[in-house]
Every structure is written in structure tokens, then in C-alpha cells.
Amino acid sequence: MATIAAPAVERENYLNTDFSVRSWLLTTDHKRIAILYLISITAMFFVGGFAATMIRLELLTPAGDLMSSDTYNKMFTIHGVVMVFFFLIPSIPATLGNFLVPMMIGARDLAFPRINLASWYLYIVGAGLMMYVVLTGGIDTGWTFYVPYSSTYSNTHVITAIVAIFLAGFSSIFTGFNFIVTIHRMRAPGLTWSRLPLFIWGHYATSVIQVLGTPVVAIALTLVALERAFHLGIFDPRLGGDPVLFQHLFWFYSHPAVYIMILPSMAVISEVVSTFSRKRVFGYIAVALASIAIAVLGFLVWAHHMFVAGISVYAALVFSLLSYFVAVPSAIKVFNWTATMYKGSVSLTTPMLYAIGFIGLFTMGGMTGLYLAALGLDVHVHDTYFVIAHFHYIMVGGAVMGYLAGIHFWWPKISGRMYPEAWGKIAAATIFIGFNLTFFPQFVLGYLGMPRRYHSYPPEFQVLNVMSSAGASILAVGYVLPLIYLLWSLRYGEVVSDNPWGATGLEWRTPSPPPTENFLETPVVTWEAYDYSTVSEVPVAR
Amino acid sequence: MHDRAIAATHGLRHHFADLDQQRESATLGMWVFLVTEIMFFGGLFAAYLVYRTAHYDAWVTGSEHMDFWFGTINTVILLCSSLLVALAVHAVQVGRNKTCALYLWIASAMGVAFLVLKGFEYHAHIVEGAVPGALWKLTVPDPQAVQMFFYIYFVMTGLHALHVTIGIILLAVIGWYAAKGAYSPANHNSVHVSGLYWHFVDVVWIFLYPLLYLIAHKKA
Amino acid sequence: MAEHVVSRKTYIVVWGALMALMILTAGLSRIDLGEWSTVVALAIAAIKALLVILFFMHVRYESQKMAWVFVVAGFFWLGILLALTMTDYLSRGSLGVAGH
Predict the structure, then answer these.
(1) How confident is residue B4, by pLDDT bands cut at 50, 70 and 90?
(2) Closest CA to A244 of A309, A304, A308
(3) Which residues does chain C have within 8 Å of residue A299's beta carbon, measured at their own beta carbons?
(4) What does pTM read for this prediction?
(5) What's the rounded Cα separation, in Å, for the pair A461 and A352?
């Protein structure tokens, strides 16, 4: 790493411009809001992680001996609600996206900075309510809130949790809405759509889903809350309602929500793979349009979650077929990343290790998704651990790996200091091993017939469950390591240059950490995306 | 774009290059928000469609218990208030802040009139017993499905009334700023954007009116 | 790129059309058109909504093409929600299940 001597007088940047608490809590600087989000979602990640730990501890033994079945129901519900709505959905967009979208397009801020701050406050109020639910008895409906259990029978804090999710949902809408307007209206001179980094394309596609999908789940959950509060309802079969309608409305958002989690991750991977292969992303246009295609097709497949819920056979056939189509743009991305690395000058830094891990794990998650889209096979493995393993390969193996790749990749830009590379590699390897040990056995368990959401199981499943729990403990170590060394690097990390990776994005053509206004003068873009002839810095082999 | 005339930068927020960019962002932002609103109401329209298809006769019965005139007069009120908001945008575009304020306030007052009428209408439903649940008193065939009609009616019009309430406050506040002369022909995004919101509320009602009030009146 | 100023006359003509359409739909609802009454009522509502969107909401004069795209996308996605949901409800029981 080329060391640049720290200047005698520290340059003014967005971090040292004002140290007061007030300047943070009332900031409209997208970079500071990104940091606020980063801290908040990290806290929520460990809440969700705690619930996961309890689940894996319970499943060490076949008997339901650690906690009662009611408590177990609450644990997997808290794990699901917190991880989905309070970690994964805001994870990359609200942190890296918030920080980088304006910088990558050469803007001074997002189009609506105050709405951006409002989005964080909505998230915080929502997260606070959710913590209240967690601490005062929990909720046991599962993260899917299926009626009539959630509307009629559950005795837990369903309404409070719904309000919490409603607020988090609107915080997510605000983020998406801000990105869409910013990307359309605030690009630097010369930065045409075909010159945009793929990170921007991915976030644009994500924002489209957030804006179009989230309101539908908001209204569906509102109807559940009304039904619960006033004992009347449109989902209650006793009153002539149809519970399946709730599932339609819920999955209309919650299936595309998976793409809210994975598209930003793919966006990070495109940047990382290109930078560390030192090659333009192979088939740039195809990768960019694949993001949009995923966003659109993602809205046409939702009822594949409902094959056994009583939908018509005809509808099931239609949704099964449509589900296959999503595989096409996803596969295009995987092929093109691989082709980008082919004959590239690949350097295996920590972000690149995560990116390669992502490609492999996402491919497995995606392929098993095709099994599940097949009508006949889905009836066999529906509600088993096969499904659990599948979506954790997407959400953890995909989304979280991409998130960690991005955090490491842009950490020098965010903090102005480098993370310790050796520890980074150790953590990446630990997470990869821990992840596979945790979730691969669950494919087998599911295929053998172990259902999800039970706290006890037949003894013959114990070996695979112990493997899974052992893997989870390795995974936990892998997640704690970056927390420690990234905090350590804030003080002791090596001070970095503006562009330590020799990357091409506009965010690398401004100081690290950036000044409050992002650019000392508005950049004018005259080059295509990923044109490595425009950067003088060459990354030093690490 | 930075070297644009300094004179045109009054009211320009720091992160925009010029007023055109600021105006286009505000307009586009409102449209994105309204798309969100379409989908927010969309969930209810989906529920409406599913149950109307399943219980068409009950929908006719339910609609028979709706007051045609409440619905029609409220439609007139919203269409007129929309015209006023459109004229308010015109007034501010030609620099007449006071006229703009007047139009916005009248439109806001018409919103209040809409809500008052809606209140009388809800009251009539309660008196008649056309409220699902414990207050239900109607004797009609298939009461369960007719209650479903009224439940969906109350949720849809209730959500709409919530939007009207927000719109009333918005128009009144923007009118107040206009009266203070806060806007200029070059910079009046708040008026334009609040207008978009109010028209959207009108558009929702344009669909609710035939879907709720006009099913039953086809007496041969 | 300056904002287009729509004349007051245009607004008033559009408003007149809206009122006329409202009277039309209210009047038609008194006549039994059978299957067609819903179609006609919704068609009139759609025309009214279109008038409001194009003229009162300035989409007709909007310099940004994206405003058009977003309006269309909003209604298109509503269409996806309604159409695919109804795909299920309208085809319940239309195909037999093997073994049943």
C-alpha cells in the first residue's frame, strides 16, 4: 500500500467539520445520514443475530428443551422481522447507497436532504417500537404475519410490530424516492446513463421496487391491524373474508423485497469485480438492463410463495412459469461477472474475496430457487428447511456478503483509513466456511422432510442440525471480527490516499474522507464507465 | 450550468445547480410519491375487486344504501376545488401571490366542506346501522357480504378522507406563504407540488364515486 | 426548459368537461346498461382522471419525459397487482387437480 504521509493540518472533511451531537442528529449531509444508518442497522443486526443464536442453540438437540415452543415461535419471528425489515432492506441502500449515490454521480447531496434525514428518524422510531415489542414479550406470528393467526388468534404485540414495520417501510420508500429523483436529475455534466457505474443502475432498480412495492405491504398490514383492533375484516373467513388475499398483497411486496436486498448487493459486486480485475465489466449494458429486468420481473412471480395456499392450479402454473424468467437476468449477471474476471488482472483483496464468495453462494441460492419455482417439487419441500437454506443462500450468502464486500471496499473512502487486510481475509474466510457449514446441511434436512418453525425434531436429524449450529457459531465469530477491526482501524488504520484501489468511480476522484460538499469543484465526465486508462493510481499488490 | 445568472438564484437550495434543476426535481419527486400513493390505494382496490367479483349482488345491495346525493355533491366539490388549485398555480406563475393565496384558501375550505358532508354521511350510516360489526342493524340478504362492502367502503373513504385532511392543511399553509409573497414566477415549487397532491386526491375520488355510489342505481 | 403557463381558459374548459362527464355518469347510472354499466362508468372515470392528470397536473405540458413514464408506470403496476391477483380468483376450480 502506497503510504501517503498524513498532512500536518488535517483537511476539512464531512467527519471533522463539526463534532457536536446536534450536528449529527440534525444533519442533512447524505454521508452523515449514511453513518447514522450504519450504526443503527448494525445494532439491529446483532438483535436479529441474538434471536438466530437462540434458534440454533435450541436445535442442537432433538427435544424442545431450551425454550418452550411459544418462546421459540417468538425467536424465529423476531429473527425474521428484525433481519428483513430492519437490517437487510435498509442495509446497502441506506448506508452505502446513501453515501455513494450522490458521490458517484457527481452531486453535492441527494435531491431531498431533509426527507433523507426524515427517513432515518422514521427508521429509528420503527426500530424503537420493534425493540419495545422484543423486550415486552415479543411477537409470534412469523415475519409473514399470516392471517387469520395474526389477526385473530395471536396474543402477542402484533399491532405494535405492524406499526414498527409500517414506519420502517416508509423510511425505505423515502430512500428509494430520493434515489430515483437524484439519479434522474442530479447527474454531473457528461454523465449519461450509459456512463453510470453499475452501482447506480442497481440502486435505481432497487428504488423502483421500494417505491412500487412497499405501499402494498403497508396497506395489507394496516388491514391486519384494523382487523385485530375492531374484530372485523376482509381477511377473516368467519366474516366471509379470504385469508389468501392477504398472502397475495403481502407477497406482492415481499417477493420483490428479496430483490430490494439482492440488487444493491449485485451493484456492489459489479464495482468490486471490475476494480479488482482491472477490466470494464463484461457486457455493461446487459448487466445494467438485467437490474431493471429483475426489478420488473420480480413483480410478476409473487404467488410462487402460495402454491400450497389454495390458489388455483391455473394461477400456480402461470406464476411457476413466470418465476423461471427471473433466472435469466440473474444468470446474465453471474456470467458477466465471471467473464469480467476472465483474463483480468485479478487481485484477491478482502472485498474481492467476498465478491467471489457472493458469486458462488448466490448461484447456489438461485439454482435452488429454480427447484422451488417448479410446481411439483415445491409441493414436496414447501415449508421445509430446504426453503430456509435457499433464501439464506440469497439473503446471507448473497446480500450480506455483498454488504460486507462493499463496506470493506469503501471503508477507506468512508473513514479515510484502511482496514487491516490480513484480518479482513481471515474474517472473509471464516464467514464463508461458517456460512456453508450452517446452511448446506439445511438443504439436506429440508429434502429429508424437516419442517421449518418447530423447536423439536426426530432424533435422526440431529447430526445435520449439530453441524448447522456449529457452523452458526463460526459464522458469529466471522461477523464479530469485522466489527472489531473496523472500529480499531478508525484510530489505528493506515491513512489512505484518495484512490487506494485505483478504481474509476467519481467517488474515488475526491478526497478520503470527502469534504461535506463532496467535490471541490463539480466534475465533468468525459469518459465511459470503468475506463481504467483514466486513473493514474495502480493498486499495489497486497 | 453554474454560471447561470446570479439573479435567478433566489430561493435556490445549496445542492442544486440552478432553479430548473430544483423545479424538475420537486415535480419528479411528487410524481414518484404519487406513484407510491397509487399502490397504497391499490391494495384496497384489489380487495374491492376480489370481493365485488365474488359477491356482486351484495355490492348492489350495499350501494343501494349509499346516498347518491352525498356522493355526487362531494364529487362536484372536489372537481371545483381542483379547478381552483389549477388557477392558483396559474396566478402564481403570473406573479399574483394574493390571488394564488385566495384560490388556495377557498380550495382548502372546500376540502373542509367535503369532510363535513362525509361526516354527515357517516353519521347517516351509523343511524341506519350500515356499519359492519356490533353496530350492524340492516336486514338485507347475505348480510355478511354486505358488511364486507361497507367495511371496504369505510376503509377506502377513510383513507381518502385522511388524504383530504392532509391536503386541507397543506393548501392552507401554502396559501399563507403565498399571501406573504413567498413565491415568484420563477420559484413556486411548493404551490405546484401541493397542487399535484390535491389533484391526486381528486383522481382517487373520481374512481371511488362510481365504484361505491353508482352500482345500484340501474333500476330498469 | 422554462415552465409552461397554461391559460385560465384551458383550465375552465377542462373543468366544464369534467362536470359534464360527471353528470353523464350520474345520469347513466340510472339506466340499466346490463353488463356495460360498469364498463361505461369506469371508462368515464378513466377519461375524467386522464383530463385531470393531463391538464390540471400539467403532464401534457411537462418538459420532463420522465413524468409521463412515472404516471404510466404507476397505473401499469396497479394493473399488474389487479390482473395477476384476479388470475387466481377467476380461475379457481377451472383446472382439475390430479387425484381429486
Answers:
(1) very low
(2) A309
(3) 77, 80
(4) 0.95
(5) 36
